[in-house]
Amino acid sequence: MSYSEDQLRKVLSEIEAKAITSQRDIGLVKQSIATKQRESRMLDLSTNELSLLEVGTPMYEGIGKAFVLTPEVDVRRRLLDERKNLEDDVNSLSKKLAYLETTFENAKSHIEGIVGPQQR
Predict the structure, then answer these.
(1) CB 91 within 8 A of CB 6
(2) Is there a contact between 86 and 36 (Cβ–Cβ < 8 Å)?
(3) For residues 26 and 101, is the Cβ–Cβ distance under 8 A?
(4) Is residue 75 a contact partner of residue 50, using CB atoms and an 8 Å limit?
(5) What's the confidence (pLDDT) of residue 118?
(6) Measured between alpha carbons, how far is residue 45 from residues 35, 37, 57 in Å?
(7) How far are the Cα atoms of 14, 76, 106 from residue 97, in angstroms, in the given order?
(8) Which residue from 30, 38, 46 is spatially nearest to 86, judged by alpha carbons?
(9) Segment 60-88, tens digit of pLDDT
(10) Contact present, 100 and 26 (Cβ < 8 Å)
(11) Alpha helices, H only, 54-71
């Protein structure tokens, strides 16, 4: 099956656009993963600091420009919930990253398949 040069150029430009989009998205996802991991480390530090406090120590949470007395149980629960949400986000971003990397590699191999035989 033979394709005209115009058809090959059109297909090649579509595949190149997909590769460029995937490559850009890979960078964004990696950046998001790094941000989520940094937030997770900050939560770990906060949790460790809370574990060093004596039982019954008053804890305050910032709400806008004010601080409100919050029960210790609520603070710990909020930190655990945030930690779980961050782990879930990192897992879903990792899956998205794997998909995008596969898409990019497929597009790259298709480009090589189209361009390669014509250069001979």
Answers:
(1) no
(2) yes
(3) yes
(4) yes
(5) 58
(6) 15, 12, 18
(7) 21, 31, 14
(8) 38
(9) 999 999 999 999 999 999 999 999 999 99
(10) yes
(11) none
